[in-house]
Design goal:
By secondary structure, the chain is an alpha/beta fold. The chain has helices at residues 20-31, 46-59, 75-87, 95-100, 102-108, 110-118, 121-124, 132-150, 165-180, 195-202, 223-236, 243-253, 257-271, 280-293, 295-305, 309-320, 328-332, 336-345, 362-371, and strands spanning 35-39, 63-68, 154-159, 186-192, 213-217, 349-353, 356-359. Bound molecules: adenosine-5'-triphosphate and magnesium ion (MG).
C-alpha cells in the first residue's frame, strides 16, 4: 500500500512539512559564512532539514556533501566517505566501488583521471600501506581544495556528529578543528541528537570546537503546518478529517514530527477503501496500531534506561503528573536534580516550567504509562 505519510526515511524537498523559518535562518547563517550546529532529540527531523538545506544550496550552484558518522568505524572509512561524498559534486558516483577495482579501474574513468592529476592523494586509497591518518588528513582538506580549484562555495554536513567520540575523541576533534578553521570556502553543518554530547563538543570552553558555529535547537513542527498538511493529504485520497479530529491527533502526538507522520500513516491504512470520514474512534485505533508497530523501539529505549533506575522512577512520576518530584528525594533517597539533569541531557525530558517536565517522546510516555 502506498505511503501517504513518509516515515523511516529523511524527508526532503517538497515532502518537508513546515520548517520555513528554520530553513531561512540556517541558509542565511551559512551564506554569511557561519557554520551551524543543529541539536534535537531523536526523530525530530534534523537530517531531513539539513538535507533540504543542502538541496537548495546545490540548486543555487554550490558544492555540497554529507557524511553520516553513524556506523563509520575507523579513520580510513571516514576519509573514504568524505572523498566519495565530495566527488559527487563532480558527478563521480560510487567512488568507493571504483576504488575496489584498483588503479586500473580508477584510470578508466576520465573524470576520476582528471581528479587524480589534480589531487594525488586519491591514489593513496589504493596503495596498501598508506596509514589511515595520512588518508584522513588529506581527505579533510579535500573539500576546501576542490572548492578553491573550481571557485565554488562548499557546504559540508556531518550528521550524527556526536558519534565522533567513538573514533578517537579528543585528538580527532583537534585535528578537525585545526583543518576546518582554515577552510575559507567551506561552511560546515553538524547535527546530533545527544544534547549533552553535542554541547560538550560545541559549547564547552575546553573543547576544540568551542564557538565554532551557531547552535540551533530544533523544536517540534508547528501545529498549523501539520494541520494543513494532514487535512490536505487525506483529502487528496478522498478522505475527510474533521478539524477537531486533527486537533486531537496533534494533541496526542504533541506535533512530534515522526510520531505524527506514523500515526497518520496508520490511520490511512485503517480507513483506506473503508471510510470517507475519520472519527475519534478511528484515531484511537490508529494510535493503538502505531503503538504496536513501535513496540521494539520502545522496549529498546526502556532497556537502555534500565541501568538508571532512579531516572526510570522519575519518569514514572512525570507520567503520573504528580509534580512533586522532589519529595522522592526523602522517601526513595534519589538525587532528583542529578537524575533530572541526566534525563534533560539525553533529550528524554524537557522542562516546561518550574518543576514541570514533559517526556519528549509521546509514545515512550504511553509505554511508561502502560508499564506501571
Ligand atoms: N519537516 C518534516 N516533515 C515531514 N516529516 C518529518 C519532518 N521532520 C521529521 N519528519 C518525520 O520524522 C522522521 C525522522 O526524520 P529525520 O530522520 O530527519 O530525523 P532525525 O532527527 O535526523 O532522526 P534521528 O535522530 O533518528 O537521526 C521522518 O522519516 C519523518 O517521518
Ligand atoms: Mg538523523
Amino acid at each position: 500500500m502506498k505511503k501517504l505519510f513518509v516515515t523511516g526515511l529523511p524527508v526532503v524537498g517538497d515532502q518537508l512539512i513546515g520548517r520555513d523559518k528554520e530553513l531561512k535562518q540556517i541558509i542565511h547563517l551559512l551564506q554569511t559564512g557561519q557554520s551551524i550546529i543543529l541539536i534535537a532529540p531523536r526523530r525530530f527531523g534534523k537530517t531531513s532539514l539539513l538535507l533540504t538545506v543542502l538541496d537548495r544550496l546545490k540548486k543555487e550552484g554550490h558544492y555540497v556533501a554529507d557524511v553520516d558518522l553513524f556506523g563509520v568505524v575507523d579513520k580510513r572509512k571516514l576519509a573514504e566517505k568524505i572523498t566519495t561524498s565530495s566527488l559527487e559534486n563532480k558527478k563521480i558516483f560510487k567512488f568507493g566501488a571504483k576504488l575496489k577495482q584498483g588503479i586500473s579501474g580508477l584510470f578508466k574513468n576520465v573524470e576520476v583521471k582528471q581528479i587524480i592529476e589534480d589531487f594525488e592523494f586519491v591514489l593513496k586509497f589504493v596503495e596498501p600501506h598508506t596509514r589511515p591518518e595520512e588518508l584522513l588528513e588529506a581527505a579533510l582538506d579535500f573539500p576546501q581544495e576542490l572548492a578553491e580549484r573550481d571557485k565554488k562555495d562548499f557546504y559540508f554536513f556531518y550528521d550524527e556528529f556526536g558519534d565522533i567520540g567513538k573514533l578517537d575523541g579528543d585528538e580527532l576533534l583537534k585535528l578537525l578543528r585545526s583543518k576546518f578553521q582554515r577552510h575559507q570556502q567551506v561552511c560546515y553543518l553538524f547535527a546530533g541528537s545527544h544534547e549533552s554530547l553535542m554541547k560538550e563538543i560545541f559549547a564547552a570552553e575546553k573543547s576544540a570546537f568551542y564557538k565554532f558555529g551557531s547552535i540551533i535547537y530544533l523544536a517540534e513542527i508547528a501545529s498549523e503546518d501539520f494541520r494543513e498538511h494532514i487535512g490536505r493529504k487525506f483529502k487528496q485520497e478522498g478522505i475527510s478529517v474533521p478539524a477537531e479530529v486533527i486537533l486531537y491527533l496533534l494533541e496526542k502526538t504533541r506535533c512530534h514530527p515522526y510520531y505524527t507522520q506514523l500515526l497518520c500513516q496508520h490511520l490511512y491504512y485503517l480507513v483506506k477503501g473503508e471510510k470517507a470520514v475519520i472519527n475519534e474512534h478511528d484515531l484511537l485505533t490508529g494510535w493503538e496500531n502505531a503503538f504496536i508497530a513501535e513496540k521494539t523501539y520502545l522496549e529498546k529505549m526502556w532497556e537502555e534506561m534500565s541501568g538508571a533506575p532512579a531516572q526510570l522512577t522519575l519518569l514514572t512520576e512525570i507520567v503520573k503528573g504528580c509534580g512533586k518530584l522532589y519529595s522522592l528525594e526523602n522517601g526513595n533517597g534519589i538525587n532528583v536534580s542529578r537524575s533530572i539533569n541526566s534525563l534533560l541531557k539525553k533529550g528524554i525530558v524537557r522542562k516546561e516550567e518550574k518543576n514541570k517536565y514533559v517526556i519528549i517522546d509521546p509514545f515512550f510516555e504511553e509505554y511508561l504509562r502502560r508499564s506501571e
